[in-house]
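Contributing: when you submit paired examples, paste them exactly as shown. First protein:
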Amino acid sequence: MPTTSQWVQSYRPHHYAVAKRQDRPNLYKKQKRVKIEPPPLPDITEGIEVETSTFRSLASSIKPRIILFPGLLNEKTILPVPNHLRDHLENYYTQIATIPSDSVDSARQRCQKSISFILSRLRVNKLDLKFAKEAIFVGSVFDGTAVVSVTEADVLLPFDQGKCQCEFLETGYMCIIPPPRNKKNPKERDKWKWARGDDMYISPIKVAKGIHKLIENALKYPVEIPNICLLPFQWIPTSGVHIVLIVGKPGGKNNLKINIIPAVQEDHQPILVTRPYQYDDNPASSMLWRYCNKIKEEKIIKTVGLADRGYHHKAFLILKAFCTIEPTIEGLNSYMLKTILFHTLADELDLSPRWQRDNLEACFMLLLTNLSQSLRAKKIEDFFVSGHNLIANMDFHQLSKLISRIGYLATNESELVRLLKKRRISPT
């Protein structure tokens, strides 16, 4: 038997150990290998024996440690604690906010086919405008945030501005400067004469009116397109919609409204559109082109839908449907609610390391609380344009009503549940 003063040189695989017969090590003498049989494997239900040793001395006894796995065979799924508000939010999302995928796909196809057909007829036009090969389909129908019903879609119609230059004018806006006229040859045709405003800038109003005329001719010649109606051009600054198509039979219930928005896109620059903000400081301006970050919006929305089990995305859809249907909440459009969602996510990612674990009611109440705080501060700052307030020119009485109503719902759960139950469909 080896004594306690003997040396252990190494512990090798296949359960072989090397031992010395003398007290002092002799590196030149052959060593005898002693085979140690491995212990039998224990039953997993009884535990796993792990041999540990301090290696301070070989005389110390080896104490086995038992590691038990009691939940390995009888573990139960941990379900969330039932919550009164969560049940009503889930029912509201299923019965009110959600739209069947077939309806959304049908609306997308109708919109894409109509615009593609019109674009094919605009390749050659009287204004010599070079339109993009494909339109940019934006809005709730195409980014997956449509709620309640699908009756309206937005389409950006980009065109080449040629030698025109874009210049920053104020926060959230740019102006388009046409090329100077040729003084040496005054008879040379001015390509942008039809679009110049009184201040010699490219006017978004005149551009929208000119493209409206081109679409009107495209729908009639050479053959009139059935079931597509172009509404007369009306400059309504508060709406910002000037070119509207109605796809469907006259007086039909399933007609689709398509808002066509002329746009200009430079390399590495945001898209500039003729459509002003809802509460614009100067919506009837003949020189201001608004920033549009629809492509970035869609990327964020799609990413949110894949993260945190989709709870923030679902909470946003419920809030949007709630603000759309509830008559006591007016004046908040989809872009404002998206801005609240983007700022909320930015704060959550920076401040909360476990933001993915929030449940549905926590996400919804967080959005509602942030909306209430932004209204009280009278400021919803554009997520992409720093310093631009989306509600700076909202009517005072309308803003006061929103502050009172949203603030009350954010602090009174019973009133919120009452409104959610109000729109529920009773089971049959």
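Second protein:
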Amino acid sequence: WVVFAFFHVLEFFSDHLVWWVPLYWLAKTIFLVWCMAPINQNGSAVVYKLVIRPLYVKYHGDIDTVMEKAVNKAEGLFEKVTEKAKKVAKEVTNNHKSELLDNWTQH
């Protein structure tokens, strides 16, 4: 699945460049079948061993740093949204209470 996701991301960004290549879809299909073939050295094992694993080993520190920053920003954003939602809920509740009180005193 890692190889398929990697291939899918590459294809997403290169699709506009390769869609006109003759027999691209046939080559893609053959590649994906090779990746899923039930043999020892199928495409997934080869691509993972020669491409994905070396890239991961080289950049995993940078990836972890970026992910940690993203998590921290998301947590900060979540806290801001939560505080804003609490303020809005309090305002709505107070307005609703005053409307109910006004309606009750008018009768």
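If you have annotations for the second protein, write them as plain sentences, like these:
The mean pLDDT is 85.
The radius of gyration is 27 Å.
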